Amino acid sequence: MENSTPTRKRGRPLKTDGSNMTTKEKLVRYGTVILTEKGLASTGLDEILKTVGVPKGSFYHYFASKDDFGLAVIQHYETYFANKLDRCLWNKNRTPLDCLADFIEEAKDGMTRHAFKRGCLIGNLGQELGALNEKFRVPLEKVFLDWQNRVADCLERAKTTGQISSQTDSQEMAAFFWIGWEGAILRAKLVKSCAPLDLFAKHFFNSF
Q1: Which CATH class is domain 71-206?
Q2: Where do the structural domains in the chain lie, given as residue ranges?
Q3: pLDDT, tens digit only, all 208 positions of the chain
Q4: Among 27, 153, 185, 205, which is 20 to 30 Å from 164 by CA?
């Protein structure tokens, strides 16, 4: 009978552990959780590897460096969050501004559920690394610009429904949204309350 066990190089771990997710995907997914809470510098590889069940020496079969791992986590979070934004902002049963308000409420629920420990991975890493590590600055800004464009599209639709003035600069207001929102997220983590998020949302919507 032919041996069905996959062949691999000596010392290289199997790609999967029997689930549909590869080991690399598990490292990135758990890394997303812990980096959101602790940041890259404060996160030890041992903690991540132990949780996933990967020997420390095998980490470099998947990533060239810790920075490379951090960039993979950013890319994973970018995809996850873009899908979340689209789900909220393109709800055909809600008006555009209500869709944006729904995103805010969902974010508040997530902050509360995780006891205000996580916040936004991109915002956290932007504060930690954006001004210090050029390798991270550009990818992080790219994510923010993508989010900005999605909110700008939502505001453009709000013009067509008459919710906001046709003279509104959608890109400028979308940039303002993310600048203010990330600050509100940081403050919410500090005070362990959604009050900063509510205050920001109130004045953002009132500005229209």
Answers
A1: mainly alpha
A2: 71-206
A3: 444 433 434 334 334 444 567 889 999 999 899 888 888 888 888 888 888 888 878 888 899 988 999 999 999 999 999 999 999 999 999 999 999 999 999 999 999 999 998 889 999 888 888 667 788 999 999 999 999 999 999 999 999 999 999 999 999 999 999 999 999 999 999 999 999 999 999 999 999 9
A4: 185
